[in-house]
Amino acid sequence: MARVGIPRGLLTYQYLPMWKTFLEALGAEVVISPPTTRQTLAEGVRRMVAETCLPVKVFCGHAVALAGQCDYLFIPSIKSVEPRVYNCSKFLGLPDMVRAVVPEAPPILEADIDVNQGRRALYRAIYSLARPLTWNPWRVREATRLAMEAHRRYVQGMVREKKTPLQALGFSPPEEEAPHRLMVAIVGHPYIVHDDFITHRLLPRLKGLGVRVLVPEMALEEEMARAMAKLDGKAYWTYEAEVVGAGAYYLDQEEVDGAIGVAAFGCGPDSLMVDLVKRYARERKRPFLALSLDEHSGEAGLLTRLEAFLDMIERKKRKCE
Amino acid sequence: MRVSFPHLGHLWVPVRALFTELGVDHVVPPLNTRRTLTLATKNSPEGLCLPFKLTLGNFIEACELGADTLVQAGGAGICRLGRYGRTQEYVLRDMGFQFQILTAGVSEKKLQGIMQLFKKISGGAPWGRIVSAVRFGLAKLNALDEIEKEVHRVRAREKVKGQASALFREATKAVDETGDYDSLKRRKQDYLEKLRAVPQDGEDPLLVGVMGEFYVVLEPFSNNDVEIELGKLGVEVRRDLFISEWTRFSLFLNPLGINEKRHLQQAAMPYLKRDVGGDGWESVGEKVLHARHFDGLVHLAPFTCMPEIIAQNILPSVKEDIPVLTLLCDEQTGKQGMLTRLEAFVDLLKRRRASRRQKVGVH
Known about the structure:
The complex is a heterodimer of chains A (321) and B (363).
Chain A: E1 3-6, H1 12-25, E2 29-32, H2 38-47, H3 54-66, E3 72-74, E4 77-80, H4 89-92, H5 94-101, E5 108-109, E6 112-114, H6 119-130, H7 137-160, H8 165-168, E7 182-187, H9 190-193, H10 202-208, E8 211-214, H11 221-232, H12 241-252, E9 258-264, H13 268-284, E10 288-293, H14 299-320
Helix pairs in contact in A: 1-7, 2-3, 11-12, 12-13
Chain B: E1 3-4, H1 12-22, H2 34-43, H3 50-64, E2 69-74, H4 81-94, E3 100-105, H5 111-121, H6 127-157, H7 163-177, H8 181-197, E4 206-212, H9 214-218, H10 226-232, E5 235-238, H11 243-253, H12 262-268, H13 280-290, E6 296-302, H14 306-314, E7 324-329, H15 335-362
Parallel strand pairs in B: 1-2, 2-3, 4-5, 4-6, 6-7
Helix pairs in contact in B: 1-6, 2-3, 3-4, 6-7, 6-8, 6-10, 7-8, 12-13, 13-14
């Protein structure tokens, strides 16, 4: 049985159930790299050019961790998943970058996923992904069907049960109903928001401070798209809705006390997206904190800013009452 | 309606010619200076790339001169460039300017989109007039690029440094002032001859390719005049990117299925298998392709440029052996720092060439 490694970074948070189901239906054993540690990041930082953004460095570290343990690495090049909306370059070049900086890596299962190339090209891409595991197109078709179903269940489950991806994936314990003094939305890409090492445990920390946290995955896709359209028209980036859409959506909700934008330093798309949300918050006079994270960001500084922000929201809330 | 547009090298000359031919009221923003950059950096969202900031600065200075229609490149699926227009609109509105922004699609519609844009700007001028105006603009562009290629050659060899650059400045002005094909041709010949007549020494200079991201390669202010500085160090600069080449291919020949970059992309294939937007793919290809006949490569990229970061990560794994100096361009880049690195790089190339010659001599 072939062992296929999936690095725990970037789009894995969005698509893990889909990918895992797909690969397992084709008879592969799936290995996921352990959560990010100092070692993971150090490995990524050492191998990549300094100005590479943090999540890509982390991803590279995960690929290194998997290198000796599997027969294949699963790193598709996802260019576009909706018509005429494209992804950041780094998602496209991901397999090539990993190949270049992790020479010891096993062969990479890569394929260009681009819905703008038409159905046939997409089918061919999916088939080429599966080719090292099976030659049988009917098996690939069945695996794809199961994978899409798993993905749908995963996405809907998070909205319905108000779960974070980590909880839905079973990586962290489910939420217990606890009294909270504030409700704060976190907007940002899941590979930053849900990586507790990168964010210095932002989510658990907020919970500890008595804050109920909302993340983009808990909102309906249509709601985010609607909010997005109101704020900025059509999305330009593939994962724009989870930042701009979620930001606008949550800032409009009365019961949400404020929002925190979490972005990686040097992230091209985020430099535009977080700015849009910041503008919107300013217009609507809603509390918004923009956090920019990189491998040097210190825990103490983050905590101070977080506490100041929460104090500010509380004061504002008291004043209104 | 007063139209304005951002700077990109000497692109302003042909664009001015085109607008004048069409009878469009327009204003050329002041050439890029420290002021342009400072104004833009102050008002732009942080974390954006240098091309965004400089073109924003051009728009600010154009608006100060009364421009009310701004033309910016756009399109889907390239890089942040597709989003420049919308973001610059927010920023300029916040600054209190009254204007409209028009985007020219560079990624999909190309020729058709650009022609329609000219139709709109000219208030519906007949197609014949638009076509002849575009032709004249292109003629100026080609003339300037032809002169610039000669300038690259002379700069490395001239006995008194700075003559070629001075002549090029003059030539730009002269080409800008011509109003018909005849005098354009005459002036081009004139300056080509003047350049050839510059006293030169017969040494065989180092050959360095300049490659990387389109904007920072073509806009000298953004790269701290790296080509002039290389010329001062006695290095001949070669580059594949010229605006005239770009327009010729992307507007006229690419739609016919002729892809001038195919050889670059093919060369990059073993290392980078797909287009990653911007010029990342081509940057990798240039290293592979030019390893044999160039002494070195200067790779220019704006700080945080997504496609070029991919290229930077991949370039060291390219087996073809040629030294590459990557220079990142942003508002923090100091010229002295760049000069030191250039000098060190040129020294390295000289030694490398000498040792190679020696090896050949032994055999």
